[in-house]
Design goal:
Elements (H helix, E strand, L loop, with lengths): L8 H5 L1 E9 L9 E10 L6 E6 L8 H7 L3 H4 L5 H12 L4 E4 L2 H15 L8 E3 H8 L8 H7 L10 H15 L12 H4 L2 E2 L16 H8 L3 E9 L2 E15 L2 E8 L4 E6 L3 E6 L2
Parallel strand pairs: 1-4, 4-5
Antiparallel strand pairs: 1-2, 2-3, 5-6, 7-8, 7-11, 8-9, 9-10
Helix pairs in contact: 6-8
Length: about 280
């Protein structure tokens, strides 16, 4: 149990929402959310309101992600689609809550993209990250993964990899760390010493590459095949041929969505890691 006596007045009265998502893959522009779970709580109230819904991603579920979260095509085939669930989730959040996620950029990049696709304005709530909070309040841990933290602090024997269960773990981690949070006496203080995000920073826009990539930009717009030299890791180049589809920009980084002929799968490639390219005639 956390130390309620260590809480300042703001933390005592603020309403928080811990949330988590499960997805069809790791890259938001080309994958979809399949589950949202959330719990709305106050620091001095033992339990809170819960939100949980599967989402039909309107595409097959890859086997490798089924192995992680166990959500199958059969489980989501009759689930509501994203626009319906997003509207319900946004109403559940309200406008005055502070949102909490573990490794927040991952979850909010997916939700931001989904809100953009559904043409629903994204929630404007401040979003904070328990990874960043735990780094500040309990430095030096060997791992800050949700599963490692849940085991270390005996919150759960293992991570379930389902959205509501993980949201409840996020709530408990935040409750544990909150008394050690300093210099946050009002909502606007979150971004001063700790990372704070907003969901509308992530949206699904087709981008144009900078002028120095004009030839590559044109090739992508024409969906041409391109052979690239790509450094997924520094100084480890690989040569591959891709069938280009679309350009995405996430914050200041450009990505090309494409079919990789070597991997025989959809892939995304960071443009700043492409050292050479040739349009295939």
């Amino acid at each position: 149990m956390f130390d309620k006596e260590g809480l300042n007045e703001y933390l005592r009265r603020q309403v928080f929402v811990a949330f988590d998502t499960e997805t069809t893959g790791l890259w938001a522009p080309v994958n979809r959310v399949v589950e949202i779970g959330a719990v709305k709580f106050e620091m001095e109230v033992e339990d809170g309101q819960r939100f949980s819904s599967l989402i039909n991603p309107e595409r097959p579920m890859p086997l490798e992600v089924i192995r992680v979260h166990g959500i199958t095509d059969l489980m989501v085939c009759d689930a509501p689609t994203a626009p319906e669930v997003l509207a319900q989730f946004k109403a559940f959040l309200g406008t005055d809550t502070v949102l909490i996620a573990h490794n927040a950029p991952f979850d909010i990049s997916f939700l931001g993209m989904e809100f953009s696709r559904a043409q629903i304005p994204a929630p404007e709530n401040i979003i904070i990250d328990t990874v960043d909070i735990l780094h500040h309040t309990i430095p030096g841990l060997p791992s800050y993964s949700l599963e490692a933290l849940a085991r270390r602090f005996k919150l759960a024997p293992a991570q379930e990899h389902r959205a509501l269960a993980d949201a409840l773990l996020v709530m408990e981690l935040f409750r544990m760390a909150a008394p050690a949070i300093e210099d946050v006496g009002k909502k606007e203080d979150w971004g001063k010493h700790l990372a704070a995000y907003r969901m509308d920073e992530w949206h699904d826009d087709t981008a144009r590459l900078p002028e120095e990539f004009a030839e590559l930009d044109e090739a992508v717009r024409l969906n041409r095949r391109v052979t690239i030299v790509y450094e997924a890791k520094p100084n480890v180049p690989s040569r591959r041929t891709i069938q280009t589809r679309r350009i995405h920009k996430l914050r200041d980084i450009y990505y090309i969505e494409a079919w990789c002929e070597q991997a025989k799968a959809d892939r995304t490639f960071r443009v700043d890691r492409i050292t050479r390219w040739t349009v295939v005639e």
